[in-house]
Amino acid sequence: EIVLTQSPGTLSLSPGDTATLSCRASQSVSFSYLGWYQQKPGQAPRLLIYGATSRATGIPDRFSGSESGTDFTLTITRLEPEDFAVYYCQQYGSSPWTFGQGTKVEIK
Amino acid sequence: EVQLVQSGAEVKKPGESLKISCKAYGYNFKIYWIGWVRQTPGKGLEWMGVIYPDDSDIRYSPSFQGHVTISADMSINTAYLEWRSLEAPDTATYYCVRVGRFSSGWSPFDHWGQGTQVTVSS
Predict the structure, then answer these.
(1) What is the DSSP letter of B63?
(2) Tell me: the pLDDT tens digits for B41-98?
(3) Alpha carbon distance B5, B26 (integer Å)
(4) Which of B 74-113 lie inside 8 A of A, CB atoms?
(5) CB nearest B63 (choices: A33, A96, A101)
(6) In sequence order, what are the residues at sequence separation of 6 or more whose Cβ sits closer than 8 angstroms to the Cβ of residue B41?
(7) CB-based contact A7:A101 (threshold 8 Å)
(8) DSSP type of residue A97
């Protein structure tokens, strides 16, 4: 099973800042099958990024994903008030599909 | 518009059975994988399994195989998650999810239901 480790656990930032979230996989993720989700309190997660770098439909371009080997990064530039939430990475390249434990982006 | 609408919250006792549902709207139900994700405060998000309604091909996570049953009824565009004997650790929010079609291989979950809270307590 691929273990995804997200860091940091919590990121305290101000609107307008840039958030850099990390997701490290315990082994190679096949075909870069790595996604990122945003979850707000009381809501279901929402897909942001698929294939490590591609934005899902309707996702603003201030969200971007990158990869380097087994390290994946979600970058959110020019943080908007609605971006403060919990973010999860997920690999779907190897069964069982697994999620990271989440990074909370909170208002400083 | 794609929508996944789940059945309501449930409170059950240990040992009881339960079947929750997820009705899909706005797309061709039979040609998209659909499945379930569990969320708990302690373990976070966990993928449980998916089903391809057109041929009932099912893939389970080893962590859930044998404890739950995933099924689908194409005639009413509905997927199900069923337990024969609930346990207290099954207390969680369960999300219905649709697997996207971004490539010829697997894709992440592009649509989620609103979640069903299941509480198992004596």
Answers:
(1) T
(2) 999 999 999 999 999 999 999 999 999 999 999 999 999 999 999 999 999 999 999 9
(3) 11
(4) 95, 100, 102-103, 105-110, 112-113
(5) A96
(6) none
(7) no
(8) P
